Every structure is written in C-alpha cells, then in structure tokens.
Amino acid sequence: MPATADFIVIGGGIAGVSVAHELLPHGSVIVLEQESAPGYHATGRSAAVLTENYGTPIWSRLVSASRGFLEHPPEGFATAPLLTDRGALFLARAHETGQLQAQYDDLIVRGARVELVPAADALRWCEVLRPETFATAMHEPDCKDIDTNELMMGYRRGIRAARGVIATGARVTAIRRDAGGWQVDTSAGAFQGGTIVNAAGGWAQQVAGMAGLGHRNVLPFRRTAVTFDAPAGSNLHRWPMTFDLAETFYFKPEAGRVMVSPVDMAQTAPCDAQADELEVALAIDRIETFTTMKVPRISHKWGGLRTFAPDHEPVIGADPQDARFVWLAGQGGNGVMACAAAARLAAALATGQGVPADLAALGITEGAISPGRDCVVDRMAEDVPAGTLGG
C-alpha cells in the first residue's frame, strides 16, 4: 500500500470518498477510515433523500447543484440508478405560512417544481396526516430516494480505478507538520501527504486538534430514528418524505415500514451513537399526534451523528492557520444529497481554483463557508502552540 500521496483525506464517509474522487485529476490520493468499512457512521444512517428544500440556504443550493450528478452520473460510475421517485411534503402551521411561502418563491427561482396548497389538500399525497394541525403544505414531486450504498460504491470504484487508496482500520493517532508536508500516524501505519482534507465528520475537531490547529466550532450532535409497521391497507409505497417546517418530526417509507425521527439535536462526543430512549418516546408521540397512525411496536431504533457549525452552514476550505489543511465538514444531515457539489467545491478550494463558476452563480462565496469565519473560529485558541491540542 502506498504510504505517500499528494492528498490525504481523513474520513471515509460520503464526504471523504466524494472529495477524494474529485481530487484524483489533481494528484495521488489516500483515504484514511478508522472503521473496518467506509460509511459506517452518519452516511450509513442517513434518511438518504434528495430534496432542494432542506437545510440552510447554502446547503440547499449545494443540493440543487448536486442533482445533475445524481440523476446522470458519469459513464460507468454506477451499476444501478442512484435515485428513485419519492416526493417530499412540507407542513406549516398558521404562523409559519410566510416562511413556507418564501421557501416556495426561492425554489421557483431556482427552477424546482413545487406546489403550494392548503394543508387539507396534502391528504392526496399522504392519507394518514391530521391536516387540521397545519395551515399550508408544499409538495416537491422531484424529491428522490438516494441509493447510498450504490453512491458510495461508485465513488470507491472510481478511486481504486485511478490507483487511489482507501485504507480501512486506519484510526488517526497523531498528525505532524514539517517542511515536506503532513505526517499522519494511524493504527494501520504511517502516511505522508502534501495536503490534508479533514472529512472526519463527528471527529473533525479532534483531527484538527491533532494537527495543532485552533478550536473550530464544528461539533457532533445525536439524531434518533425508529421504524414501525405501517397501518394495514395504507398506500405506504406512495407516501412522500414528510417534514414539519418547525423540524420537530419527519417520516418516510423505509424498507416496507415507516421511519420517523423527532429531529433531536443533542450535542455529544464523537461516538458510535445510539438511540436515546426519551427521543424514541418523542418520535412515537409526534407521529401519533400529527398523523392517524399508532405505534404498538417499534421494529428498529438507532442513532447517528450530525455535525454542525453554529450557523449550520458548510465548513469548507483552507484552515486560517494552515492553507494545506482543508475542511469538508459541518454537513448537518445534508452530506449525502449535497455530496457531489460539496466535494467539487472542496476540491476546487484545496487546489487553489476558487469557487466553481456554477456554484458562485448560486451565491456561494468562500467567506460564507470558510473555516475562518467568525462563528467557526475560536480566536482565543488561535495562538495555541502546534501539537498541544488533544485528539
């Protein structure tokens, strides 16, 4: 296995493999993944839909810019379609109708197909809703389910075909900087590279700390989800992914059952996240409050990590303390559906090309996503000597 590359990508989830794939034309690439297989944590536990009306303004634009890749991947990238029809439904209470109208107007400008209707009309897409709780609804017919496994495999095949390396079981234990670049010690051996790309998800801050960089406010939060059997005779296969605008719940069909999350966001240490029992109870309560469904028995429950900056926007680009340490972090649940554009953006910034023209045309600027922006940088930590921050 080569131990030296132009780029060392730390993290083998969707962020890591997608940016590695984008970096291949610019040099040799090694991906370091601490688990025995890529995509074990957030990627493997994602709701995995493509919707242009989810997340903050920059993330939603990165999703729009990723649609073309996911709909029409490069020749040979995938062995099956990456997307299948799903649809999305967004429900607003009376005091939220202005917010939903603004989102509708923005989506129309971006060329998305959406329909704004009274809440009662949402029953034509999902018959189990209690529409009296809401005032208006927006239907997004072009929301798609994403085959996360096929997407991951496509990136992995591309990396290996270009002689890139994906090293699993490679937990990073130390990072040192010298005149020749970065030295990265792992449980699978030592690696050297000119540029590090930090795509470590919930572990992104620990990786930066090992590299001797100041604290960045990019932190992991737990998300809980459960599945249960759908009501007998329901049109489950036709239901859209359904969200309330206040983000207190979402649900969708999942492998013949209903998956629901209470959209919890509890800060946690990076870990193999597990379902929180209180949040499991809240998920059941919300599904029984806002729909006619009952949950007599849970089929499965799990937890996952979502990583956020304080403004919930992406953290992409060179660290203010070292231009050869590049971030691709803070996905906040948008990582799978925005991966193509986010990876392209990170690779462009890592190679000094600036924001790609199509993304700039969407209003995405380096300053808005920079690891050096005020809400991300802890200025008091900027002068900490290299190597003194733990991992």
Describe this entry's structure for a reader.
By secondary structure, the protein is α+β, with helices and mostly antiparallel strands. It has two domains: 4-45 and 148-218 and 311-380, FAD/NAD(P)-binding domain; 88-141 and 220-308, D-Amino Acid Oxidase, Chain A, domain 2, CATH 3.30.9. It is built from nine helices and 20 strands. Strands 5, 6, 7, 13, 14, 15, 16, 17 and 18 form a nine-stranded mixed sheet that branches. A hairpin with a 5-residue loop joins β14 (241-244) and β15. α2 packs across α7. The chain is globular, with a radius of gyration of 21 Å.
Strand content: 25-35%
Radius of gyration: 21 Å
N-to-C span: 25 Å
Q: Major beta sheet, specifics? A: 9 strands, mixed
Task: Categorize the overall geometry.
Answer: globular
Could you give the topology of this structure?
Blueprint: E1 4-10, H1 14-23, E2 29-32, E3 49-50, H2 57-71, E4 83-85, E5 88-92, H3 97-109, E6 115-118, E7 136-140, E8 144-146, H4 148-161, E9 165-167, E10 172-178, E11 181-186, E12 189-198, H5 204-210, E13 219-228, E14 241-244, E15 250-254, E16 257-261, E17 266-267, H6 277-290, E18 298-308, E19 315-319, E20 322-329, H7 339-350, H8 357-360, H9 366-369
Parallel strand pairs: 1-2, 1-12, 2-9, 5-14, 12-20
Antiparallel strand pairs: 3-8, 4-8, 5-7, 6-7, 10-11, 11-12, 13-16, 13-17, 13-18, 14-15, 15-16, 19-20
